[in-house]
Design a protein that fits this description.
The strands form five sheets. The chain has a five-stranded parallel β-sheet. A four-stranded parallel β-sheet has the order 11-10-9-12. Strand 4, helix 3 and strand 5 form a beta-alpha-beta unit. It has three domains: about 140 residues, 2-Layer Sandwich (Aconitase, domain 3); about 120 residues, 3-Layer(aba) Sandwich (Aconitase, Domain 2), CATH 3.40.1060.10; about 180 residues, 2-Layer Sandwich (Aconitase, domain 3), CATH 3.30.499.10. The chain contains 16 helices and 18 strands. By secondary structure, it is an alpha/beta fold. Helix 2 crosses helix 5, helix 6 packs parallel to helix 8 and helix 13 packs parallel to helix 16. The relative contact order is 0.13.
């Protein structure tokens, strides 16, 4: 009885161990989208091979989808072709397909949990690095490459070496205005973007126990940004309550049987991790990034670090600040903002829009800022309307767009222009990530809301 949660799930899915090699690893759920799947299907056709378990594969259109006028034909020919190819491949191989116009359409890592595709103890892969999101349910979930997508389609297995194990504990209570996004950015700022390379991370402690399922998804989503293979949180009553009764979850006696197994999914007290870290919740404040990777983040009341206090290459650090047109020792507060983006598989859930609305209620959008509010799914969009959040947003001068990946990445119409600053609730702030020459500041929905109202980087605690 000395296994971690990760061990229990991983070992139960090993079909075959290869001496001095990777494990042959069975996959319970395979999520695909329009960007990474076309070449994989082409490989199947060239080899005259079918999809072994189409019922375990779920196709969702999200990366290339427009977020306005989704009822119209997609104007960009490349995007339109990829979307049509996904639809055609899904139809040919008998795969469930939630394309544009489908009531279940949205971002793949949002609609998966919403519809009960994501379950505790499952193994889940997708040709998308932020598949780690699903680890919030006690699942092993990670992104794979195109050749691996083809492998899973044809065999329902993948060749994969077992990662090392890390546990990150955050103890205590979060202060006012501090969100799960801030917890994740804080951890990445401490471990750096390579600090968890080669590891699968289990999150534990008071903060994660208290956190909502939406918050846990945000944290697990960002595991990949510190180099981890994925993140995982032990399922509990919150998990079971979230998934109960959803479209694809077990029902009746099958639910009771599943619950018996799911309740066993926790790390044994005597289990040992290869590496372990503990942080105090009271040390975390609203975070914001100032550079060109997610590890370049600071508490919003702090100043941009001096290069001599930063680990890593001096030249790369200076290059990053030069790209952002920021300087050592500057405060982030008061920096002028051009765009605000709320959405993505990191922060496109109903809880995120509730948080945004809590700041902007009774106020007005800043004239100098363009704001894109993009729900992660039609279910989220419906909840925004049902809960009266849309009324709050409209009265404050905001417009709600339609579901999709949107401005998380420059793969659709929602691109940040060169040289412009965007406070974004997404997951990556690399050079050009949101559009060629764009400058991205990663932050929580509360920080995004504060910037949308004031037009500059603002501590949201001043507006709560």
């Amino acid at each position: 009885m000395n296994n971690t949660l990760f061990d229990k799930v991983w070992d139960s899915h090993v079909v075959r161990k290869i001496e001095d090699g990777p494990d042959v690893f069975f996959i319970d759920r395979h999520l695909i989208h329009e960007v990474t799947s076309p070449v994989a299907f082409l490989g199947l056709k060239n080899r005259n091979v079918g999809v072994l378990h189409p019922e375990k594969t779920f196709a969702v259109a999200d990366h290339n989808t427009p977020t306005i006028n989704q009822h119209l034909p997609v104007s960009d020919p490349l995007s339109a072709n990829q979307l049509k190819t996904l639809e055609d491949n899904a139809k040919e191989y008998g795969i469930s397909h939630w394309g544009l116009g489908h009531q279940n359409n949205g971002i793949v890592h949002v609609v998966g949990p919403e519809n009960g595709i994501t379950l505790p103890g499952a193994t889940i892969v997708c040709g998308d690095s932020h598949t780690s999101t699903h680890g919030a349910f006690g699942a092993i979930a990670f992104g794979i490459g195109t050749s691996e997508v083809e492998m899973v389609l044809s065999t329902q297995c993948i060749m994969q070496p077992k990662p090392k194990k890390m546990r990150i504990n955050v103890e205590g209570k979060l202060d006012k205005g501090v969100t799960p996004k801030d917890v994740a950015l804080y951890i990445i700022s401490k471990l750096t973007t390579s600090g968890a390379t080669g590891y699968f991370v289990e999150y534990a402690g008071d903060v994660f126990n208290d956190m909502s399922m939406e918050g846990r998804m945000t944290v697990c989503n960002l595991s990949i940004e510190m180099g981890a293979r994925g993140g995982i949180i032990a399922p509990d009553e919150k998990t079971f309550e979230y998934i109960k009764g959803r479209k694809l979850t077990p029902k009746g006696d099958d639910w009771e049987t599943a619950m018996e197994y799911w309740k066993s999914l926790k790390t044994d007290e005597s289990a040992v991790f290869d590496k372990e870290f503990t942080f105090e919740a009271s040390d975390i404040e609203p975070m914001i990034t100032y550079g060109t990777n997610p590890g370049m983040g600071i508490g919003i009341s702090n100043s941009i670090p001096n290069v001599k206090n930063v680990e890593g290459g001096v030249e790369s650090y200076k290059k990053s600040l030069n790209y952002m047109d920021f300087h050592e020792g500057e405060s982030m507060i008061g920096k002028k903002i051009d765009f605000v983006f709320v959405g993505s598989c990191t922060n496109g859930r109903i809880e995120d829009f509730r948080a945004f609305a809590s700041i902007v209620k009774g106020k007005k959008k800043a004239d100098n800022v363009t704001v894109w509010l993009v729900p992660g799914s039609h279910i989220v969009e419906d909840r925004i309307k049902e809960e009266g959040i849309l009324d709050i947003l409209t009265q404050a001068g905001f417009v709600l767009r339609q579901p999709g990946c949107s401005a998380c990445l420059a793969m659709n119409d929602d691109k940040i222009p060169a040289g412009k600053y965007s406070v974004s609730t997404s997951n990556r702030n690399f050079e050009g990530r949101q559009g060629p020459g764009s400058r991205t500041l990663l932050a929580s929905p509360l920080v995004a809301a504060a910037a949308a109202i004031t037009g500059v980087v603002t501590d949201p605690r001043e507006l709560l």
